[in-house]
Design a protein that fits this description.
The structure holds two protein chains of two kinds. By secondary structure, chain A is an alpha/beta fold. Chain A contains 13 helices and 13 strands. By secondary structure, chain B is an alpha/beta fold. Classes of the chains: A alpha/beta, B alpha/beta.
Chain lengths: 327, 254
């Protein structure tokens, strides 16, 4: 593929690589580096029936569920920490209302499931979880598992360690690999070829990226190939794994992007007010998702003043002294 | 004696439990501020690390989440989840870790529920889920648990066992295939509970100044041993000053 073809706008990237019913994995963690610009576009294009894989996820996950794009989730933690005490607002509502199928895992399990997918093995072993309901209670019933060949027949399996039958680790849990149709992530820098540089914590973005058939990366900065190759130790994802590159400065807003901008407490507080009620949630979507036609329009709506208030200190990576109090 | 809030007392009770040199795995909220308090007050050589991959975070400001950019500054390594959970599952490093986190429900053996109230498939109330706490509590040498002292939170049987404690008592963890270790301390807004070395059952260890052991018992569905309860020393001026001026000047948690 011609490298130049990978750089495209939001609408084209989502149209080409995200389809109704797809299995989608989302990068980032609670309030940091959620691929928000891509998420808004998925909602704008009215994608339906998505099956979502995340570990600890926040804003993008909550919005996709609330907007009705999602049929099923595999998850370990849904929430935006102090901005949604008790859990992600639309995530909780969807489960309590019986609106979506869901299955719980732990963060380490989801990590190993993405890693298994990235390495091409069908499962990986893990020592935790024995005796917990995470092992005992399966979210998806047999009928759903049978009706969908993409879903493993079992949630997980407890087996004897085949190497030391009488040893101290007799039981071990196996968790199945995840290979999504598409993974969406937001990174600080990407070059035209697709080499990805994530600054700060990578969470499981790299494993999620490599496990997927298609990979869309939005970035704050498109940089020259010579520049990104000057310090290749800092890069994580080989360029040939990337299918679409979308340049979206502040593309993780209102979540943080280490070294570039902090999370936006003002916007999170607004969401906290508007998300619980179906009517005001719809108003939120109308204001910030359907009411804008592009990422640039979204940023205009947020406003230059607010964006400059959350601009990160380059040394600290966040905005020191940012007013994070509740309203 | 200086004035203090119950939250400050709770944070300091947890911080006092952290020893110098401990490797501290912490969750969100109270856990985070307790770990910071320990590092600034009584355990300057403790190492704070997060499931998200931040190793020895400097925490100049209080993070809101374990994924907050504030955990990434000045670390020795910024890695990812695989690295952090690897440190926990690793048989040489895991036992050196002390985990701190909160829960919605707890039973007498320190098993925790952070998932739901009621039926799992159609819950009355859904919570975030087990996140990384289940993994951490499975491998860490010891764990500290923050709880709100309410009857419905201290129950005979948790609605969903998200995170293992001592499971059903002596030998329970070994039988379940888990390494040694387990919960050592439960911190509430009224006092501190520990677990008996033999039975692994919760007992009241300390109450905060002005609180009677019976008052604590009234706020629990389960009955626990109150006979060993002593009084937790109140916060000192030095502890409070550090907490208010260095750790949480914006009063985000305290």
């Amino acid at each position: 593929m011609d490298a130049e073809n990978k750089v495209m706008d939001l609408a084209e990237a989502v149209r080409r690589f995200v389809h109704d019913g797809d299995h989608v994995s989302i990068g980032g963690f609670t309030i940091t580096r959620n691929p928000m610009a891509l998420t808004y576009e998925i909602i704008r294009q009215g994608k339906k029936g998505l099956h979502i894989y995340v570990h600890s996820h926040g804003q993008a996950f909550d919005l996709l569920i609330g907007a009705g794009c999602v049929d099923a989730i595999e998850v370990s933690y849904g929430g935006t920490a102090r901005f949604s005490p008790g859990g992600g607002i639309r995530f909780r509502k969807a489960i309590e209302g019986g609106k979506i199928l869901f299955e719980d895992y732990t963060n380490f399990q989801m990590t190993l499931r993405f890693l298994a997918g990235a390495m091409g093995v069908p499962f990986l072993p893990i020592r935790s979880l024995l005796a917990t309901d995470v092992v005992k209670k399966w979210g998806f019933d047999e009928e759903f598992r049978k009706s969908n060949p993409r879903i493993p027949e079992k949630k997980m399996a407890v087996v004897d360690n085949p190497f030391f039958q009488n040893g101290r680790e007799e039981k071990i849990v196996l968790v199945p690999a995840i290979n999504p149709d598409v993974t969406i992530i937001h990174a600080q820098q990407v070059d035209h070829q697709g080499t990805v540089r994530i600054k700060g914590l990578t969470y499981t973005d790299v494993e999620q990226a490599k496990a997927a058939k298609y990979l869309i990366v939005s970035c704050d900065e498109l940089v020259e190939t010579e520049a990104i190759r000057e310090d290749p130790d800092q890069n994580q994802i080989p360029f040939f794994m990337v299918d679409a590159i979308v340049v979206a400065p502040y593309g993780a807003h209102p979540t943080a992007c280490y070294g570039y901008y902090d999370y936006d407490p003002h916007h999170f507080n607004l969401y906290k007010e508007m998300a619980p009620d179906d009517g005001t949630f719809r108003q939120y979507l109308d204001d910030y998702v359907f009411g804008v036609t592009s990422h640039e329009e979204y940023l205009d709506k947020i406003g230059k003043d607010r964006l400059s208030q959350i601009r990160a200190d380059p040394r600290l990576g966040y905005r020191p002294g940012l007013d994070r109090r509740e309203r | 004696m200086p004035e203090y809030s119950l939250r400050e007392m709770m944070i300091l009770a947890a911080a006092r439990e952290i020893r110098d040199g401990d490797i501290v795995f912490c969750g969100t909220g109270m856990s985070m501020i307790a770990a910071m308090a320990a590092k600034h007050i009584n355990a300057p050589h403790s190492i704070i690390f997060f499931e998200t991959g931040g190793i020895d975070s400097q925490l100049l400001e209080l993070p809101f989440s374990v994924g907050d950019p504030r955990v990434m500054f000045g670390t020795s390594i910024n890695a990812g989840l695989a690295e952090s959970f690897g440190i926990l599952q690793n048989p040489f490093t895991g036992p050196k870790v002390v985990g701190i986190f909160g829960a919605a429900q707890i039973d007498r053996y320190g098993n925790l529920n952070t998932t739901c109230i009621g039926d799992y498939w159609r819950p009355k109330a859904r919570f975030p889920g087990c996140g990384g706490a289940c993994d951490a509590a499975s491998y860490a040498g010891r764990t500290i648990i923050f709880m709100k002292q309410e009857r419905r939170k201290f129950v005979e049987r948790v609605d969903y066992l998200s995170t293992p404690g001592w499971i059903p008592g002596p030998g329970g963890r070994t039988e379940a295939g888990l390494p040694e270790g387990g919960p050592t301390l439960v911190i509430t807004d009224m006092g501190v509970m520990r677990f008996d070395d033999e039975s692994r059952q919760m007992y009241l260890s300390r109450t905060y100044p002005g609180i009677d052991p019976q008052q604590v018992q009234q706020q629990m569905e389960i009955e626990i041993d109150l006979s060993r309860a002593a009084e937790e020393p109140p916060p000192t001026k030095e502890e409070l000053d550090l907490l208010r001026e260095r750790i949480d000047p914006q009063r985000l948690i305290i």
